Amino acid sequence: MADEALFLLLHNEMVSGVYKSAEQGEVENGRCITKLENMGFRVGQGLIERFTKDTARFKDELDIMKFICKDFWTTVFKKQIDNLRTNHQGIYVLQDNKFRLLTQMSAGKQYLEHASKYLAFTCGLIRGGLSNLGIKSIVTAEVSSMPACKFQGTMQKGVTDTPNKMFQWILCHRNGRLRRLTKPNIILKT
Amino acid sequence: MAVCIAVIAKENYPLYIRSTPTENELKFHYMVHTSLDVVDEKISAMGKALVDQRELYLGLLYPTEDYKVYGYVTNSKVKFVMVVDSSNTALRDNEIRSMFRKLHNSYTDVMCNPFYNPGDRIQSRWALLPVSASSPGGPYSRVRIQSRWALLPVSDPVQVGPTSCVRIQSRWALLPVSDPVQVGPTPVSDPVQGL
User: Fold this and answer.
1) Residue B52 and residue B45 in contact, taking contact as beta carbons nearer than 8 Å
2) Domain for residue A149, yes or no?
3) Which of A143, B118, B146, B181 can pair with A115 through a Cys bridge, CB separation 3.0 to 4.6 Å?
4) Which of A132, A136, A166, A167 is the mutation pick for testing B, counting most B CBs within 10 A?
5) Residue A16 covered by a domain
6) Which domain holds residue A109?
7) B57-63 vs B67-73, strand pairing mode
8) What CATH number does residue A11 fall under?
9) What is the pLDDT of residue A158?
10) Number of structural domains, chain A?
11) In Å, how far are A22, A28, A114, B71, B195 from A25, measured between CA atoms?
12) Does A19 score more than 90 pLDDT?
């Protein structure tokens, strides 16, 4: 199990490294969690590309979430997600009862407020993976009792990056003046 | 013999497109662009009875009189399009599939490259080189990639010098997503022919 320890130790050092640089003024205070999350985001994008190389195409969002809970989590953390809940309207809750990155800390209430630092990278990992699969989301984590934790993902519907957006600004030449139309379904009169 | 390979992002702009330098580049760009519609049709639920929904390889998209166009879509909705010469009848389905697998492997490596931002044009000179070298009989297996702008068609494959003067022929080179491209001393007359 040596490879597991490698990532665990690297992750711990990463968190403390980011916070140390915050103390020395290189990073603004309060931006550390964002920095860790963005790191996780980029890693998640690359990881998902590698893991979905050989799998079949996904049918829908639920299929993607199941892939994340089973294959993705197993490959990264060597275990599956223990519980996946959804309200079928874009909110998913992944519960892990023994999160690998938190098992090294004591199981009581002592380090509860510090736990969020160690979850930021994983939140970014999930968000990056989902984003590369075409789902924009916001992922947050909460810990009620160590080492169990919950990741909540809120999928954003209706946010598309298609180039059609640029056609919402339609310029029409009317009576010698350029006017901007914001509704794309207005008939252009020249 | 594969005459053109294109990697298209999920927002339908090209990340990487290379074709054999001897022919009219624009024709291939149009072909790839029009094939995107066929790709979208195949991956939506419309034609469900015809194509296996779970497969990544899409097969022959459409044949023209000289060329055949094949497609492949990854789980991250990145599309690979390959244009193949019709005269080469010895090229079987399995070979096309293996070419797509190699392309997918190279693309995965590009994604994992920490210096690559997802969504940018694939600029790396070595990124997809194994693909061009391995496609059967491709004439650009001998080509050393000289041009800094991987998207601009290089007219002469053995041109020396990184800043070769090329005329912008591809209309995708002018889309806002790309960086402003510097053209050499030869003025570009009208790259976009009133499409």
Assistant:
1) no
2) yes
3) A143
4) A132
5) yes
6) 1-158
7) antiparallel
8) 3.30.1380.20
9) 56
10) 1
11) 5, 7, 20, 51, 53
12) no
Mean pLDDT confidence for B161-169: 48
- In B, which residues are within 8 Å of A72 by CB distance? none
Considering only CB atoms, which chain B residues are within 8 Å of A161?
Answer: 11
Element (H, E) at B84: strand B79-85
**CB contacts, 8 Å: A52 with chain B:** 74-76
What is the tens place of the pLDDT at every residue in A112-162?
888 888 889 999 999 999 888 888 899 988 888 878 888 888 888 654 444
CA atoms within 13 A on the CB side of B143: 27
pLDDT of residue B88: 66
Please report residues of B whose CB lies closer than 8 A to that of A53. 74, 104-105, 108
A93 within some domain: yes
Mean pLDDT of chain A: 77
3-state helix, strand, coil in chain A (%, to 5): 45, 20, 35
A105-126 tens-digit pLDDT: 877 778 888 888 888 999 999 9
B143 pLDDT band (50/70/90 cuts)?
Answer: very low
Interval A36-75: pLDDT, tens: 999 999 999 999 989 888 887 777 788 888 888 888 888 8
- At residue A29 the predicted structure's pLDDT band, cuts being 50, 70 and 90, is low
Question: Is residue A119 one of the residues assigned to a domain?
Answer: yes
The verdict on a CB contact (< 8 Å) between B114 and A42 is yes
Q: What distance in Å separates the CA atoms of residue B31 and residue B38, rounded to the nearest whole number?
A: 11
In this predicted model, what pLDDT tens digit does every residue of B101-119 receive, in sequence order? 888 888 898 888 888 888 8
Is A13 exposed, middle or buried, given 0-12, 13-18 or 19+ CB atoms closer than 10 A? Answer: exposed
Find the residue in A nearest to B44 (Cα).
A59
Tell me the count of A-B CB pairs closer than 8 A.
Answer: 51
What stretches of chain B show up as alpha helix (H) in DSSP? 25-43, 93-112, 129-134
How close A59 comes to chain B (CA, Å)?
Answer: 8
Cα of A108 vs its chain's centroid, Å: 27
User: What is the Cα Rg of chain A in Å?
Assistant: 21
